[in-house]
Amino acid sequence: MAQEALKLMCILAHPDDETLGNGGTLARYAADGIGTYVITATRGERGWFGPESEYPGPDELGRIREAELHAAAKMLGVRDVAFLDYRDGEFDQADPSGVIAQLVHHLRQVRPQVVITFDPNGAYGHPDHIAICQFATAAIVAATDSSYEDRQGRPSHSVSKLYYMAETKKTLDMYESAFGDLVMHIDGEERRVHPWEEWPITARIDTSAYWQQVWEAVRCHRSQLPGYNSLLKLPESFH
């Protein structure tokens, strides 16, 4: 029997998560001939950095950001992009059974060996990031269950490895040097990044050879560039 082609899938929340969080990883493995795939829950309809008077509205911004994601994915060598069609900022309120069913469908269709998603804290407490971690983890379990039927009756599939994106102190220092204090206020509570200790991290990927390619992918997210320009001012030690 021929060996199944190697595939990597990122299951994420918004356009630009694939570049800022996983761009180097996607670029490296695509260059190695691995099939790379991105599943994105929303179109980032609320992610507007320009003047409020110029906000094009959620539907138009969603179309803009969808096109930006496709452009960035092409730059990173991603083989295919799929959207789950949920609204930015509302994903944590989605019906779990519906989300899981969609993800099981994608997992059984693509059949990746490795899946990457956000960690249980959603990097800095973002509700959509936390939700996609929970849904992706549940879907990976459901996809292995032969009694779980998806909409096209595809056979069960077991992912070999599930990785959570781990923000180390060094990574956090880089982002805060560019963006300032990373904090969210949700339901009156302050949420911020809590970097991972070194000991629970099981995989580290050297993507330094691909930083220029990732920068080009960042530039594809033009609607977000007012928020990202500060990254260009970081010293070379952060590349």
Can you offer a commentary on this structure?
By secondary structure, the chain is of the alpha/beta class. The chain has a single domain, classed as Rossmann fold (3-Layer(aba) Sandwich). The protein is built from 9 helices and 7 strands. The strands form 2 sheets. It has a 5-stranded parallel sheet, with helices on both faces. Strands 6-7 form a two-stranded antiparallel ribbon. Helix 4 (96-110) packs across helix 6. The longest helix is centred in the N-terminal third of the chain and has 19 residues, at 58-76. The radius of gyration is 18 Å and the shape is globular. It starts with 6 loop residues before the first strand and ends in an 11-residue tail after the last helix. The model has no long low-confidence stretch (mean pLDDT 89).
Task: Give me a quick take on this structure.
This protein is 39% helix and 15% strand.
Give me the secondary-structure topology.
Elements: E1 7-12, H1 17-20, H2 23-31, E2 35-42, H3 58-76, E3 80-86, H4 96-110, E4 114-117, H5 122-125, H6 127-143, E5 161-164, H7 169-179, E6 183-186, E7 189-192, H8 211-220, H9 225-228
Parallel strand pairs: 1-2, 1-4, 2-3, 4-5
Antiparallel strand pairs: 6-7
Helix pairs in contact: 3-8, 4-6
